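Dear Dr. V.,

Thank you for agreeing to look over these. As mentioned in my earlier message, I'm a first-year student in the group and I'm still getting used to reading structure tokens, so any feedback on how I've presented them would be very welcome. I ran two proteins. I've put each sequence directly above its structure. The first is here:
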Amino acid sequence: MLSEEEKEELKAELVQLEDEITTLRQVLSAKERHLVEIKQKLGMNLMNELKQNFSKSWHDMQTTTAYKKTHETLSHAGQKATAAFSNVGTAISKKFGDMRNSPTFKSFEERVETTVTSLKVFFRRRRYEEGKED
């Protein structure tokens, strides 16, 4: 338990601290207003400050070891993926080329050509015959 004298001393200290805090808040507020006035005179605004802060933060982040390692890893992975896709494309093109030159495909191609030619002849005859009957 605190004695009455100690309680009075603590209450006095509490009042003094509250007064000091109030004074400090007033001083801080005045300094913030003065800061805004100076920035306005210099043509600095919130948007410019945000841009500068963002640029600085971006630069700081890019210079970190973690960013550099991540960038290197992703760049390397991208190069490997590009090479892999290129190889797949080449393999598919080669496969189609091989397939097109195969005897089976040649035979199929010839059958299609023969069928198309037969259909053309058929329709020409039909048109000729229809024209004759008129």
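The second protein is here, in the same arrangement:
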Amino acid sequence: MQGRKPSRWLKAFFKEHRYFVCMETYLEDEDQLFIVARYVQRLYEHMKEPMLALRTVDKVRLVMEVLLPEAVICSISALEGLDYQSAEKKFLSGPYVCPHERKVLDSVIRRRRKRSRANKELLCTPPKSEPTP
């Protein structure tokens, strides 16, 4: 946050024509994600002198697109005894999902899509008029 270490996440954040890809974060659920995001947000808020370029940016985007991924990468590095580059590579490849788990998840997604399409068709089909006696 003070510009001492180069960050690929910060470089991507400042690119004009960039897009952000949603990825798995190795966190258990959204509550855990919220706790970590709030923690890095507080760290940023309590910085005495952040980089000059960071003073005018959208703080939410900065936390979600730069600080949160870097915090997770540092956690992976510390927990698994990896250097930063190896931890970043592991982060980018996402957590391991066993084939059975992937199959179950794909099945759930297909069922939801099928149900969603059926509901749309019901909403788009005009009601049949009943014959008048």
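From my reading of the second output: The CA atoms of residues 41 and 117 lie 40 Å apart. The helical segments are 8-14, 30-45, 59-80, 84-93, 99-124. Does that match how you would interpret it?

Kind regards,
E.
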